[in-house]
Amino acid sequence: MELTAWLTTSHLIMLGLLLVFSVFHSGLAALRTWGEAKIGVRFYRIFFVLVNLPIAIFLIVYFFYHRYDGLILWQFQEFLAVKVVVWLLSAISFFFLYPSTFNLLEIAAINEPKVHLHKTGILRVCRHPQMVGQVIWCIAHTLWIGSSFTVMTSLILITYHLFAIWHGDYRLEKLYGEQFIYAKQRTSIVPFLAILDGRQTLLLNEFLRPAYVGVFGFILLIWFCHLQLF
After folding, report:
1. Which residues is 72 bridged to in the sheet?
2. pTM, whole model, 2 decimals?
3. Which of 74, 86, 101, 224 can bridge 118 by disulfide, Cβ–Cβ 3.0-4.6 Å?
């Protein structure tokens, strides 16, 4: 077998799709202040979602149909312990991927979207919860599927989210200065680090929010769908 035999066309297409998503997602985030001044805060949020959401959905669908492409590097699906670990990691990832400090009405642009420099809830655990959730999601799915296509997809997603940490902190510090620096000093990128070193205190009552009921319901829905599809 040739060394490049595993490199199917789908690998290159996925690479291109992820690059397109990265450019639009981070690019439009960088242009937020300028765009909001031109068309308003609500319309820019709607525009941001209308551009990025279709790309994200297409990425998910494309990943699903090509997840086993290329070389199968490992196959642990018959092991119960691996199955349990994958399900637990996947469930945990969604609690990070959905930072419930966000106002749902602001996400939908019903209320005027604002930047909240929160230091509570999931942000006590990690300042960039979506990055942590994405890394956990990638680890779980890569462990389960074991294909070169999934490995490549996971590595690119993780790399982009690491870039997004720098990009997000840079933008917020530029916009909010000392206010963001203080929030940054009181939080950590590594989960639980700020709690372990005394900069934060974990308050479990902050997680008693209706939003987490929705997250739990979404996890159950995903679990049911995965039973049918995987």
Report:
1. 147
2. 0.85
3. 101
